[in-house]
Amino acid sequence: MNSTEHWVSDKPFNPDQATELTPEQEKVYFASQWRLMWWKFKKHKLAMASGIFLLAMYTMILFVEFISPYELQTRHTQYIYSPPQSVHLFDESGKFRGPFVYGWKQTMDMDTLMRTYTEDKSKIYPVKFFHRGEDYELMGLVSGNLHLFGVEGAGKIFLLGTDRLGRDMFSRIVHGARISLTIGLLGITVSFTLGLLLGGMAGYYGGWIDNLVQRMTEIIRSFPELPLWMALSALLPVNWSPLWIFFGITVILAMLDWTGLARAVRSKLMSLREEDYASAAVLMGAKPKRIIVRHLLPGFFSHLIASATLSIPAMILGETALSFLGLGLRPPITSWGVLLNEAQNINIVAIYPWLILPVVPVILVILAFNFLGDGLRDAADPYKH
Predict the structure, then answer these.
(1) C-alpha–C-alpha distance, residues 79 and 157, integer Å
(2) Among 290, 344, 352, 384, which residue's CB has the most CB atoms within a 10 Å radius?
């Protein structure tokens, strides 16, 4: 019978040396879960870039009056359906002049009533940064007239062209971002609260409460989303103010979006409530509210954050779709969906393609939220490789 020699070190055992950790090991072993999540999230370059982009967008909506060269409703009646202008650095002779635009000359074909715009190269208007222009009230609170950029004198700058009333499309898209981006945050706040409350009660108590919440969820999810949105939006009174219409659309989107989150919370709580630490809290006399909030929810709160991040773009798309169909927000309130409503006629879009430009920020924001949600979902489990 073969035997294998068992090797034993003859060095004296030193418990302090055996448990000594390197600085790198200590950094990882003693890091909190949130810190581990942050380290893993930083490795997701696309999610990091998306997070920076979204942070810039949400910071921008605080200063839309400053960023846009013109006010939301300012009309330039001499420049109706003006195409986007080009910003130049060198004049015709090749001389560097810094950013500037040429004068804009309009002619009209009396047979087709089509306006044609050409550059008047005899007139040069430098683009000035931090330019004093139209008066405004920042967020409706602070009066000012300082704009990020603009041109002096009789010159005009239309980076993305103008609409049928001669309003600057760039300024309107920037102003529309405030409504379109805010509606997602307000909506997810309402749906997140409903999902945590109803899903938490169903998962912790079970029984008839669970059956009631599940039946409500199944009924709501059985309806096709878009027709249901349209039906509920059509119920909003026509004589409501734009502000009430805004809150009404937000509540409608939130009331239809909480079901997925509630199911995720329910299933997670049903598994966690049987854990030893939850049973110990019950035996010690902790109330259900404390058990759910202090012991059960933190165990998967990172997953809830990722789920909420992925729900925001659905609400933005919902508002855009409703406003595009004329059943959501209405002028004078302006969102990306309201701007796209003017591009419903394909003949108009074929002649004036810049009217479809509000769809670009919608696509970019939706993609950014999805990439960010993917990164957060991966980082939510920092121990998974």
Answers:
(1) 11
(2) 352
Kindly state which CATH superfamily the domain 173-379 is placed in.
MetI-like (1.10.3720.10)
Spatial distance between the Cα atoms of 189 and 315, rounded to a whole number of angstroms? 11
Cβ atoms of 184 and 315 closer than 8 Å: yes
CB 79, CB 158: distance < 8 Å: yes
Tokens of 201: 């009660």
Angle between helix 225-234 and 301-324 (nearest 10): 60
Domain positions in the chain? 76-167, 173-379
Nearest to 119 by CA among 128, 137, 130, 106: 106
Region of 326 please: left (phi>0), alpha (psi -120 to 50) or beta.
left
C-alpha to C-alpha distance for 321 and 318, rounded to whole angstroms = 5
Instruction: Summarize pLDDT for 269-298 with one digit per residue, the tens.
Output: 887 777 787 788 888 888 877 877 777 777
| Pairing label, strands 142-151, 88-90 | unpaired
Mind listing the pLDDT tens digit for each residue in 63-85?
999 999 999 888 988 888 999 99
Structure tokens at 166: 């001669």
Rounded alpha-carbon distances, angstroms, from residue 11 to 7, 8, 20, 121: 12, 9, 17, 89
Q: How far is Cα 50 from Cα 337, in angstroms, rounded to an integer?
A: 22
Q: What is the pLDDT of residues 215-240, one digit of tens each?
A: 888 888 888 877 877 787 777 887 78
